[in-house]
Amino acid sequence: MGTARLTGEQSKRVQILRGLACVAVVFIHNTPPGVAQVFAKPFLNFAVGLFLFLSGMLSSPGRDLKKRLFKLLIPYLLWTLIYSVMSNIREPARIPLVTLRNLLFAKANGSLYYIFVYCELMLLIPLIDRLSRSRFRYWGFAIAPLEILIMRYLPLIGGYGIDPYIGLVKAVSCLGWFTYFYLGYLLGNGRISLKADRGRLILLWLCSLLLQMAEGFCFYRLGPSFAGSQLKVSSVLTGVLFALLSYGYVLRGQDRGGKLLKFLGDHSFGIYLSHLAVMAVLVQIPGYKTSVPFPVRALITVAITAVCVALGKRILGKYSKY
Predict the structure, then answer these.
(1) What is the per-residue pLDDT across 74-107, written as a single tens digit (0 to 9) for each?
(2) CA-closest candidate to residue 37, choices 25, 26, 47, 45
(3) pLDDT > 70: percent of the chain
């Protein structure tokens, strides 16, 4: 498929999907702790996977890798500094060291971690392309499940910690997310084709939601922090099925409205980077966190962040991409 081979309508649908993924990310970060993670997150856990899938779908060896990475580097540096200052505003002496640590290990917040993941996948494109052309191409789909099983399931189920140095690698590794980007790359570059019909994919997606809830409940009993994770095998299955449905929509979808999601998609990178800062400001309002319920909090965050990003884009003009 590639960027050059997208029609105008298909490009619009990609932006609509980015807007949808962006909304889901904000909802994920506003989902209350506890059992809500088990039953709400399965409907949202496609978010980052869809971003990576679309990026893989629009990637090819011929695209300017340095230019794509440079466009990410400045926002990554800027927002790492912003979040480092925000989290240490009462202890300014800590800011330089914390900022350096956050830059090296993508620790400023969860959103910036995914910038790290995306950059790793960009650097792996030459290897991904070779694998996609080989007769072993389908072995690529085993990478993410094996990483999740070995690095996440076994320590959690066995009740033991992993080596701190291995933990540092795990904390910034792209391997658990590899399936999404790789699937998008295969489809977008014509290495495989989508043959399943839409109705069957929807049925499988609904079944995978139930499986994800069941798996999430099992992990909730072991440790609530992993119950709503996007890096469970069932979460990846749900995300892959949603990505396949999205691919069919990009190719043959019917545009009915979607103006709001298109607007959010056009501003999705800015919203993605800045919504946690907006949330940090909102929770300083007395009674906001306790009196405003979960779905409303998420919608307020989306609305305020989108307006701020749109204003910033208008003020900064061509420099707003940084």
Answers:
(1) 899 999 999 999 999 889 899 999 999 999 888 8
(2) 45
(3) 97
Determine the straight-line distance between the first and last CA of the chain, rounded to whole angstroms: 27
Helices (H), the chain: 8-30, 36-40, 47-57, 65-87, 95-105, 110-123, 125-133, 143-148, 154-158, 164-172, 178-188, 198-222, 233-252, 259-266, 268-282, 288-291, 294-316
CB 2 within 8 A of CB 188: yes
Residues 6+ apart with CB under 8 A from 311: none
**pTM listed for this prediction:** 0.92
Q: Which of 310, 309, 308, 294 is nearest to 27 (CA)?
A: 294
Distances (CA, A) of 24 to 202, 264, 275, 299: 19, 12, 12, 10
Amino acid letter at 248? G
Going by C-alpha positions, the residue among 175, 186, 180 that lies closest to residue 50 is: 180
**Pick from 18, 64, 50, 59: which is nearest to 239 by CA?**
50
Rounded to 5 degrees, what are φ and ψ at 44?
-115, -15
Q: At what angle do helices 259-266 and 8-30 cross, to 10 degrees?
A: 80
Q: Judge residue 27's burial from the number of C-beta atoms within 10 Å of its C-beta, 0-12 exposed, 13-18 middle, 19 or more buried.
A: buried
Arithmetic mean of pLDDT, 14-33: 94
How far apart, in whole angstroms, are the C-alpha atoms of residue 70 and residue 67?
5
- pLDDT, tens digit, 9 for 90 and up, residues 146-185: 999 998 888 877 777 777 777 777 788 899 999 999 999 9
